[in-house]
Structure formats: structure tokens, C-alpha cells
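Page 37, top half.
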Amino acid sequence: MSLTGFQSVGPEAITKVEIPAANEWRFEVDLESKLLVRLIHGNAEIFGTELARGMEYEFTGQHAAIYTYKGCTIEYAGNVNEYLADTTPMTIFANLHFALEAQRSQAQSSLAASASGPRLLVVGPPNSGKSSLCKILVSYAVKMGRYPMLVNLDPKESVYSPPGGLVAAPISHILDIETGWGSSPASGPSPLHPKQPLVYYYGLNNIHKNPKHFRESTELLATGVKRRIAEDKHVRISGMIVDAPSALTDGSDSYESCEKVVNDLGITAIAVVGNERLYSELTRRFTGLTVVRLPKSGGVVDNDDTWNRKIQRLCLQQYFYGVPRQPLSPYTVTVRFNNLTVWRVLERGSGENYNDYLPGGGEDDEGTQTEEEVLTKIEPSAILQNCVLAIVNANPGDPANIVAKAEVLGYVHISEADETRHQAKVLLPVPGGLPSRPLILADWQYHE
């Protein structure tokens, strides 16, 4: 039996670090390395979730920080870039949490049946720490016994779903320290309480590639969120934390998508991270909302596209094969091409004519304009090989506008597409046959 964790390394490979009060220990570990950490003395947290004293944590492919309010001692082993920082925005983030908590308490004491907690939209430029702030605020809310609704609108992020999905999930238990948000039945295994997300598949890596599809998917997600909030008093009082993609406020579509998100989700406040000009612009545009400016943490790392693609590949791998502590055994089936119904998400720029993507320039046989579509049906072929497709809750014969509005049931991977035999090998996360449902092809591939 092989040794694991700190037992697998010698005492000389273990380093002890004293973290002073109100300081954080920042670390960067790549995908080919492994970092082991354990808390020896004091109290500490990662993105708002407390570390258990004496428990070993394993990190791979992460840029994070261990923060302590009163000081602590940790031990670590592994190949990692690390340093101590005495300047952090954690006190400011904590004050924001207290302000949100005050609004929750006010909603809880209100006699109005429809009283609800704060609905915060977090925006900012790329690599500004938006997702880190959302994790902290959600974790702090859970510590207070709240059930905040988390909404992720960034299709490049893998929050309770492989990349491409727009996700909403009420959070009632602590987040997973090792993986960040943790996982769900739509993203893979988890030793913690699984989340039950609502997922709609946008499928592209930038919201400007098909803004119409993004806005429609956001509206559908908002409808589901509002329904859950109306039925669950705990979630309604706890409010909502919305993690927005940087493209939502880059001005490319004159902030139309941002305004729609604010209206659809009933946003009451906006937090702008690391951009004074954006703060000024949103303060001018949203005069009826509270807009706050927050500093960018010095520990935020500027991740390039190569790093982001590696992380997305890791998330896809974990969806099918699990994680080291909880592996999965996916199931492969062979499916005939004529038993597959495949749609592809159309890519459009915000300034382009949508009808140009339709046959005949958007006119039917009688010369009249047809309804704008966001999907196009394709014939199964070798183009599907190595692609990850979303299974949606619709019927194979449904038209594009119905398929585009269907929620995600799960994902499959086409490991082989044989045009000679007209069949494909499909990797499923669970045993059984491929459901008779439409599949949506988009930007993401996975090469085993």
C-alpha cells in the first residue's frame, strides 16, 4: 500500500510558515505539480472557507491565498511559488459582507412576505478577482446560516458545470477548499454536499460571439432563479451573488447586455472590482442602484489563454473521470449517426446582421423574413470527434428555438466519429444508453 499526503514526503521536504495576523500566504501551483497544505495552529481560510486544523489539503492548478485574521501556522510540501503579503483587501471585502448581511437581517425582520435580500452583481476587467470575491461573499453568507443564490454568467468558468454553461445554484453548505466552488451532478463528484444547479448552455467562450443567445439564456436562467426565490424563503432572504464575465461591461454593445442582466435578475447593487472608469460609467448609468468600488487584490494573477484552456480541459477531465480522492469510471457506447440529433451554436458579432447566417439571407421560399435562430442543425460527421456536447431537455424533433431554450441534463464526449461506418463512440459519465435528446455542439473539445 503506497503512502499518500504528507506521509509520502520526507521531513526535509516539509516547510513551516508563520502567517501574521491580517496577512495572507499566496501560492501558485501549476497543473503538473501538487501542493500539500495543513493548518497546524490558529485559524485560517481560503476564499472565506475555513481550513480544518490538522487536515491535509491537496492543490493542483490553482492560484490562491490562505488568509488569517489573528495569525496562524501552516505546513506545506510541493513545488510551488509562494510568498507572504501584508496588504490585502480582505477587510474591505468583510465590510461589504457585513453590509449585505445587514440587508438580509432587515429583509428577515420585515413583515412583507415578498421581502428579499440583496442581489449583488460583481463586474470588472479580466483577471481582477471577481470570482474570488464571489467565493468569499458566498462563504461568509453560508457561515451566517444563509442560503445565497450563486449565479455564474461567465461561460469560460466551470462553476458546477463544464465550461459553456450559465449556472444558478443556491448554496447551503461550505465550499470545497481544494477545488474552489466544489462540484455537482452536472460537473463531477464531490465528497461534500452536492449542489443542484440550473444550467443553460450558451456554449461559446465569449458573450459577444452570439449576444442574442446570451441574453435569451440569461433571461431563462433568471426566470428559474426567480421561481426558486419565490418558493424558498431562506434563499429569498439570503439574496443573490452574480459573477459576471468581463465582456459584460467592456462597452462593446453599449452595455445593453449588462442592463438586461440587471433587469432580468432584479439586481439591487453592483460591485466594481479594480476599475475606476467602469465604476464611474456604471454609477452614471444605474442611478437607482448602489454601485461600490473595490480594489483589486495584489495576489490576482494575470492568467493567459493557455492557462485558461488547461484549466477548462482539467474540468472536462474531472467531469468524466472524477478527482483522485473520488474517481469515476465513464461508460462508452457506440451510436449510429442517424440516432444523433446535433445542433451547433451560431457565432455572431454584436454588430452583424443575424439573418446573414440563415439560408437565403434569412428569407423563406416566399421571400419573407424568418425568425432569428441561435442554433443550426448539422449532420453528424468527423467534425464531432473530440468534441464535448451538451444534452438538453428537449425532444429530437423540436425546432431550434425550443432546443436553445432547454435546460442542460448533462454532457457527453465524442471520442471517435467514423464517417465510413457512420457511427460514433460516445463517452458517458454514467452507465447506460445515450438518451434520446438533442445534443448541442459549441467551442469546447477534450483530447484524451
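Page 37, bottom half:
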Amino acid sequence: MNFSEVFKQSNQLCKVSPDGKYLATCVQYRLVVRDFNTLQIVHLYTCLDQVMHMEWSSDSLFIFCAMYKRGLVQVWSLEQPDWHCKIDEGSIGLVSSRWSPDGRHILNTTEFNLRVTVWSLCTKSVSYIKYPKACQKGVDFTADGRYMALAERRECKDYISVFVCDDWHLLRHFESETQDLAGLEWSPNSCVLAVWDNCLEYKILLYSLDGRLLSSYSAYEWSLGIKSVAWSPSSQFLAVGSYDEKVRILNHITWKKITEFEHPATIINTKAVVFKEVEKRPVVGSEDLSIHQMTVDNSLFSTQSKYEITQLPAQVPVIKPDPDRANPKIGISALAFSADNRFLATKNDNMPQSLWVWDMQRLSLLAVLEQTAPVRCFVWDPRRPRLALCTGNTKVYLWSPAGCVSVNVPVEGSFQVQSLFWHCSGSSLVLLSKEHICLCYMEAEEEK
């Protein structure tokens, strides 16, 4: 592995363009666009206020910066740096902005979710969509970019509207069989819409494009329900994580449960491998160091770590949640399928230091990574079965079917990795600390 120099960023605003050629970062009110390969600055834009959100268009030709406090969105062109566009929502305010799949319309949600405004960059026309619901995930586009599903709330009932993205006309409008809809998500093949209820009721509904209810699934009643949902890239599986510390896998033919994955405190599965991170602080003799080394070379004093395979049965560290507090730290908060559909990674909130990897061919536990600190972020390589994770320290961790590795980020000063994401080619990782970014390049042998 090789690492780049460190660059500044603010609000964790750092995105790689969809074509993989550019890296955009925001530093306060400035937008910096770099060539991803050389890291040279190619464009520098100045916004009217501190940027709260930044997003690339699907064709990588435009980028917008949203300033929610001022109700403003500024759009910049990479092809024509002199061209720019300003969208002002005025006194109605702004809480979220996003691109449409064609990269030529911007959807703004106003304060109090009064409406969604669709702004066209080509014709300068404006369309309004009323009654959007304020929820965890209320808008989603199909992977082919043709349709948009929007959750609505009117007269104390949940509805779903499906719009055609070409001209924003309404294709279908139907009532959802939810008490209080929490989110919706299209399958990757754009055929099925998954809709789930809020955490007070375990209910997931599956609708076809024309609004027919294909199936409804509820695992139990009278207890906290669904916490996370993820489609497999092939659309064959729908993984549903819940507050009872289990993941249920639904199949795409009957929409019935084919298995459930439990997260026990004691692992006795003989086919699973438990990797435990073990820290080791290096012993450095003071006479061996010059003053320059002591002040500059942070890696001399950083804690090294490696993984050791734990003998089974193995105990997983468990934190008992406080039942009197809202949003208890319990249950499956994050799920992610690998790009080849072979693996599923899960995180159980009352076992925050452990990451679980499941084999989707055998439908069984494959590995558990037990870290020394809570897992902050984990993400699959978009090209191969390889998982990267971070825990808020100076290391980045990688898992693949071949094993685990812990790598120290060798930069000046302390670089605490708060989050990370892959380049679309899978050849490099972008690491984010509180105020900086660093690129981690995989070597060719590792990629094989």
C-alpha cells in the first residue's frame, strides 16, 4: 500500500466523480476539484457561504454545493468554469438537495417538508411536488434512472407516488399499508420497491412498478422492529436487520424468509473464523532518537496492531443498552452486500467492536472481526470481495476471504480515520479524518 499527502476538508465533504477522474473536497466556503491521478488542483470555486452538502451529477460534468442555512444551491460546470447557476429557495428554506439521475435537474426539499422543488438546468423551468414525507429515506430513483418513488403523508395516511423522470409526470399514486412509513428503496433491477414501517412495527412491503402489493412480511409484533434494509446487487436477496439482533434474508421469488442470521455473544460455529485485533506498543530507546525524529516521525510512537485467530468457542464483547434512553444501542444498524453477492457484512449496535461477515452461498457465518474500538464505518470494494473498515484510530483494516490485515496510516501528525470509501475502480481508498483526507493506493499484487 502507498499513501498520498494529506489535504484539508470540512464537514466530511469529499466525493469522487462518478467517472473516477476527479476528487472534489469542500473547505469551508471553497470547492476544490483535483485530478484524481495527479492530485493537482484543476478547478477552484468560491461559494457564498459554508457548504453543508456537495454532490456530483451522474455524468461528472456538474457539481452542486448546498448551503442549507441560507436556502441556496450553487451549481458549477467542469467543462465551462465561467458558467454557474444559483438556486435560491428564499424564505421557504431548504433541508436537502439532490441530483436527478439525468444530471440536469436538482430536487430541493423545503423546510418542514412542505414540498419538493424540481429545478431544470436546461429549460430553467420549475416543478413542485407536494406533501413529501419527512422520514429516514423518503425518495429513491431506479438504477436505470427512469423512475422516482416518493413517500408522501396526507390526511394522516402514507402514500407513494411514482414519477417518470423524463418529464416528471405522475405514473402511479397509491396508499401504502404502513402505519408510519420510515423508508423506501428500489431493487437494483428496478422492478420492486421495498417499503418499511417505523421501528415501532416490524413490517416490510414489496410493491411492483405499477403499485401492486407483491408481498408483505412481518417477523414479530409488539416489539421494536426494523432498523436497516439492504438489497443484494443481483436483487435476489433482501436483508432486513432489526432490533432483536437478527438479520432475516428474504428471497425474490416468494418473498418469504429463507434464513435468519443471529449475532450470539458466544460463537461456537466451528466453520467461522474469529479475528481478534491485538495491539502492541513499540518499545523505543530514548538514546536512539534525535529531537527531529521525536517531533516529526509520529509512526515511531503509534500503536501497532495485528490480527490473531481466536480459539472457539469465543466470547464477543457486549454492551448492555440503557432501556430508558431513546434510540437504544441495540440491533442491526448497518448491512452491506459485496459486489459479487457472495458476502454480507453486518454490525450489531450492542456489539460495537465486532463486524460480522456471512457467506451467502452457504448461508452461514464466515468470519467475525473483533476490533479494539467500535467500528465507525465499513464498505465493500466495488470490484472484488474485499472489505475496508475503520474505528476512529490511525489505522485502516482490510478483510478478504484470504484473511485480515491492519495498516497504520503513515502521515505526519495524527490522522484519526473517521470514515472511508472506495474509488469506483477499487484501486484506492479515500480516508477521511475530522478535517483532512488521505488517499490509500492498493498495489497490483493486492488487487489480484
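Margin note: Residues 92 and 110 are 6 Å apart (CA to CA).
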